[in-house]
Design brief:
The complex is a heterodimer of chains A (133) and B (341). By secondary structure, chain A is an alpha+beta fold. Chain A has helices at residues 33-39, 92-96, 121-131; strands at residues 7-8, 13-21, 24-31, 42-46, 53-54, 59-65, 69-73, 77-83, 105-111. Chain A is built from three helices and nine strands. The relative contact order of chain A is 0.25. Chain B has a six-stranded mixed beta sheet with strand order 8-9-10-7-1-11. The chains are: A alpha+beta (133), B alpha+beta (341).
């Protein structure tokens, strides 16, 4: 996935919406390359629970680095239908391919309205530039 | 000092396998001169320091009347005194508090206290290659200098106080130089260390290194409501034939087995306990984590904390409440890591 085509939460998750999967629209969610680099020294990821209904902005996983733990917030409302089981034993996927092999979860979208609150690539880049200072 | 230059794990590994260089200039450096300097310090510190010979260093604590720990410090008897006879290295966050405390009690003594923190810088060179790296750069013999000894040296044209000390659990030394020479000394040592893999190392790995070595950190394992007995620091005080502030209280606490004890915990899971996480047994809270991290050397989470003495024995199975979920943890002997010889 191209980072330019994704939506971003202020909490550094990205989301890609696929039109018309079986049973409606689905979303793939991951953690931005900026966030992965800022965290560094990743030691553990707690994946979301498959089958769980989450609301946009709700914590549904955690990622731990040597120095701190961070929540992973769902950028969109929906039901978790799949998680990336390869991640826990291959945390390098997050830094090597944050927008591809490093995806975290797929959701069946229940409410698309939250998408409007997300940032586009340009706005997200701006946010990251501000946070670096 | 940054949390990390590149990566905590890389810097940690460099220090354990080669050399890590730490700018620890934030630590406070206080100097003492005057006829009563030795007697004064002996009254202020939990270990005898009046008998230090020039070039010797001793770890000790500064305690209040109730034996609450005000700071943990290193006291140096300077070898080639340029006026000052003693130096005390204190934690950065406690520098002003300790200065006030010392000045409050200095009245009856012929002692002069100078804060040399800003006019000097301090660089810790730590790791199995540290001594062989620094040796060719100084005109004193480092290999023959025992641990907890210091001496003046010329380091590539700069005046330096070199000590065999550190806070990483590795061999190494610390260099105190005039602050205007700090950058040049840093560059000389780092440049010379390039071939052995020396890396600049930040506060993040300073914490993982000291935690693996089970060295207490002020504000975590040590505070004004913790006494040296429960902190397990019996080696850091002597009560015999001397007096110092806090002595009688420490003697009382030595007979009191009721207070929580400092312990080490090892976890089999992957989630990392952090400061403040409750420690439980059968759902009952029996203590609290004071420091926790993922140990890069051991590749698992480790923690230190205080628990009720009944649950402090090695091998005790406890649980740590990490963000609402209980993770199994076992009391293990400290340190978690000891350098191979």
């Amino acid at each position: 996935m191209k980072p330019e085509e994704l939506h971003y939460a202020k909490t550094h998750e990205w989301v890609h919406v696929a039109e018309d999967g079986p049973g409606g629209k689905t979303a793939t969610v991951g953690i931005s390359a900026f966030a992965v680099e800022a965290l560094t020294d990743l030691v553990f990821i707690e994946l979301p629970e498959v089958g769980r209904d989450v609301k946009a902005g709700e914590s549904f996983g955690e990622i731990e680095s040597v120095k701190a733990v961070s929540d992973i917030y769902s950028p969109i409302s929906g039901k978790v239908i799949e998680v990336n089981d390869k991640l826990p034993d291959n945390l390098d996927l997050l830094s090597e391919d944050a927008y591809g092999e490093g995806w975290v979860a797929k959701l069946q979208i229940s409410d698309e309205s939250g998408l409007a609150d997300l940032l586009d690539y340009a706005a997200y880049q701006k946010l990251c530039a501000e946070e670096e200072h | 000092m940054p949390v990390q230059y590149r990566s905590i794990i890389d810097e940690h590994t460099a220090t354990r396998s080669a050399v890590g260089m730490f700018d620890v200039s934030h630590m406070g450096r206080l100097r003492f001169s005057g006829a009563d300097a030795a007697d004064f310090l002996d009254y202020m510190v939990t270990r005898r320091v009046a008998d230090l010979r020039p070039g010797q260093i001793r770890y000790g604590l500064v305690t209040n009347d109730q034996a609450g720990i005000l700071d943990d410090v290193l006291v140096y008897r300077l070898a080639d005194a340029d006026g000052a006879e003693y130096q005390m290295v204190v934690n950065a966050s406690n520098r002003e508090k300790i200065l006030d405390w010392l000045n409050q009690h200095a009245g009856d003594y012929d002692v002069r206290i100078d804060d040399a923190t800003l006019e000097t810088a301090m660089i810790a060179v730590q790791g199995p290659q540290a001594i062989s790296l620094v040796q060719p750069l100084v005109d004193c013999e480092l290999a023959g200098m025992k641990y907890y000894r210091c001496g003046s040296a010329n380091l590539a044209g700069h005046q330096a106080l070199v000590s065999r000390t550190g806070y990483t659990g590795e061999d190494g030394c610390e260099l105190i130089v005039p602050s205007e020479d700090a950058e040049a000394v840093w560059e000389v040592v780092l440049g010379a260390g390039h071939s052995v893999g020396a890396q600049p190392a930040g506060l993040g790995c300073r914490d993982t290194l000291r935690l693996e070595a089970a060295m207490p950190l002020y504000g975590h394992e040590l505070s004004e409501v913790i006494n040296p007995v429960q902190a397990g620091l019996a080696f850091a005080y002597n009560l015999e034939d001397r007096n110092f502030i806090g002595r009688d209280a420490i003697a009382r606490f030595e007979k009191d087995a009721s207070l929580p004890r400092r312990i080490g915990l090892s976890l089999s899971g992957k989630r990392v306990p952090r400061e403040g996480c409750p420690i439980e047994i059968d759902g009952r809270r029996v203590g609290e984590v004071t420091s926790g991290t993922f140990s890069p050397t051991l590749s698992r989470p480790i923690a230190m904390g205080y628990v009720e003495p009944d649950h402090a024995a090695e091998g005790t199975k406890l649980a740590i409440d990490i963000r609402g979920r209980r993770e199994p943890a076992e009391v293990v002997s400290l340190p978690f890591y000891k350098r191979p010889h």
